[in-house]
């Protein structure tokens, strides 16, 4: 096969709105360089909105209190309950410090998810015996359990509120 001496044009020809002239063509791509898609670069497109500093500080404070409550419960119990309590305490305390240092929306989502796990951990032992599953909790009115439930629920609510506020500020 013979090589053509004609210049190869890249891109489709477009029809001019006046007279049907086919003169405009897209510029040829540079050899070896990947083509850049039209629009903004990935660095310019925010994935999640910026977090207000005040809201993230309040969420970090309630998340740290939840971590302290989980730590206290872990020190008072043993077995699987203590392991889960220490895990929730570690996530809460490290997450609270990270949220104060760099308030990112991803950390607010983690705070909300960890709070939901904490709420479920406190509520399930109270709800399941009512449904006939398992035995009643030894002390359903334990102040630490009720405090953990309240602080975890507050953390979830504040994280959701702060994310919603950040989304409104972005729009």
Structural overview:
It is a single chain. With 171 residues, this protein is mainly alpha-helical. 57% of the residues lie in helices and 2% in strands. It has four helices and two strands; from the N terminus they run ββαααα. It has a two-stranded antiparallel sheet. Helix 2 packs antiparallel against helix 3. The mean pLDDT is 77.
Give the arrangement of secondary structure elements.
Layout: E1 13-14, E2 24-25, H1 53-76, H2 80-101, H3 105-127, H4 143-170
Antiparallel strand pairs: 1-2
Helix pairs in contact: 1-2, 1-4, 2-3, 3-4
Distance between the ends? 58 Å
Report the total helices: 4
| Biggest β-sheet strands, sense, barrel | 2 strands, antiparallel
Average pLDDT over all residues: 77
Low-pLDDT windows of residues: none
Give the structural class.
mainly alpha
Order of helices and strands: EEHHHH
Gyration radius, in Å: 28 Å
Please state the overall shape, judged from the principal axes of the Cα atoms.
elongated
Roughly what percent helix? 55-70%
Q: Report the strand count.
A: 2
Residues in β-strands, percent:
under 5%
Taking strands numbered 1, 2, ... along the chain, how are they ordered across the largest sheet?
Answer: 1-2
């Amino acid at each position: 096969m013979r090589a053509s001496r004609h210049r190869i044009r890249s891109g489709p020809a477009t029809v001019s709105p006046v007279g049907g002239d086919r003169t405009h063509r897209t510029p040829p791509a540079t050899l070896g360089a990947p083509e850049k898609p039209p629009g903004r670069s990935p660095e310019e497109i925010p994935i999640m909105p910026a977090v207000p500093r005040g809201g993230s500080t309040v969420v970090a404070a309630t998340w740290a209190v939840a971590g302290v409550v989980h730590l206290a419960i872990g020190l008072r119990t043993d077995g699987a309950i203590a392991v889960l309590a220490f895990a929730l305490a570690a996530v809460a305390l490290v997450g609270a410090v990270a949220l104060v240092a760099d308030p990112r929306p991803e950390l607010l989502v983690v705070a909300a998810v960890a709070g939901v796990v904490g709420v479920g951990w406190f509520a399930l032992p109270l709800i399941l015996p009512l449904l006939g599953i398992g035995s009643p909790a030894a002390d359903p009115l334990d102040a630490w359990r009720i405090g953990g439930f309240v602080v975890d629920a507050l953390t979830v609510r504040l994280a959701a509120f702060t994310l919603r506020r950040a989304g409104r500020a972005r729009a």
